[in-house]
Amino acid sequence: MLTIGELASYAGVTVRAVRHYHAKGLLPEPERDHSGYRRYDAGAVVELIRIRTLAEAGVPLGRVRELLQADEEEFAAAIADIDKRLRADIRERQRHRERIARLASGDHLALPPEVVDHLDRLRALGVAERIVQVERDGWIPLAALSPERIPEWMARKREQIADPRFVGFCLTLGHALDRTDDDPLLVELADELAAYLTQMANEQGDDYVDDTDIEPPFAKLMDTLAFDTVPPARQLIELLKKRGWTGWTKLERVDPRRGTAGTRQEDTATQHSPCER
User: Fold this and answer.
1) What is the pTM of this model?
2) Cβ atoms 13, 48 nearer than 8 A
3) Which segment of 99-108, 173-182, 218-227 scores lowest on mean pLDDT?
4) How far apart are CA 268 and CA 246, in angstroms?
5) What is the 3-state secondary structure (H, E, C) of 85-150?
6) Mean pLDDT throughout 221-226?
7) Is 49 exposed, middle or buried (0-12, 13-18, 19+ CB in 10 A)?
8) Looking at the DSSP assignment, which residues form a beta bridge with residue 255?
9) What does pLDDT average to over the chain?
10) Rounded to an integer, what distance in angstroms lies between the CA atom of residue 38 and that of residue 190?
11) CA–CA gap between residue 204 and residue 47 (Å, rounded)
């Protein structure tokens, strides 16, 4: 005969767990012997191991009680269901493990391959890593929000990045972000960028400049993300506003005299630094 401590040790649980199972009515509590101790037989060990095994598999204790009282057929069916659920849990955990392992891969986490290729292309062109990071951080929520539109957007990005002027803006912006707000390089960039945007919009229409229809609250969220990453970008937008354009994510024409937006307030553009327009 076994004491409660010995029973717990043989079954691989704590004494507290044994008492808890007694309280829940899962394991019969024997009477005390003449010395005042409760003594358990080998059958209690077997029953306790069954309880522990079911509980560790995630079976609620109320359901454990039912299974312990079930006949062989019902018990076998229940075990099959538990096994099915555990296998599903294992597959889900494996997916989590794969995602965690991908953390070491940087951009590959939560980004489609074509977006990763786009970011690698920016790096190959010599674009500052801070600019690339803003691009990456913007694409992560976009890919989660509208994954079906990624091929369309990437086709547009490939077209834009083939233009040497865009590459020039990217390289200049990377240098300008290390300067003060009134640095001539930042002012020069605003002049060139505003002139280019105006030319592009006049030739191909405002929809060509801003063509992705993302909700304004989401655009504002991504603006905040960009400005937190590269604070001087906020000053660049202020300079652009004086030159007829506004927005980092929501790019639109404005009246440079009043700084108010034009007629396209319902449209928004994707999260990109101005060099990627």
Assistant:
1) 0.51
2) yes
3) 99-108
4) 11
5) HHHHHHHHHHHHHHHHHHHHHHHHCCCCHHHHHHHHHHHHCCCCHHHHHHHHHHHHHHHHHCHHHH
6) 74
7) middle
8) 260
9) 80
10) 85
11) 78
In this structure, what is the dihedral angle of CA atoms 158, 164, 166, 172, given to the nearest 10 degrees? 140
Confidence of residue 129 (pLDDT cuts 50, 70, 90): confident
Which tokens belong to 151?
């091929």
Non-local CB neighbours of 200 within 8 Å, separated by 6+ positions: 208, 209, 277
What is the identity of the amino acid at 67? L
Question: If residue 260 lies in a helix (H) or strand (E), which one and from where to where?
Answer: strand 260-261
| Residue-level pLDDT at 49 | 93
**Integer Cα distance of 49 and 36 in angstroms:** 25
Give CA 272 to chain center in angstroms.
Answer: 19
Single-letter amino acid, residue 99: R
The model's pLDDT over 161-188, given as tens digits with 9 standing for 90+, comes to 888 887 887 787 777 766 666 678 778 8
Q: Within a 10 A sphere around the Cβ of 246, how many other Cβ atoms?
A: 21
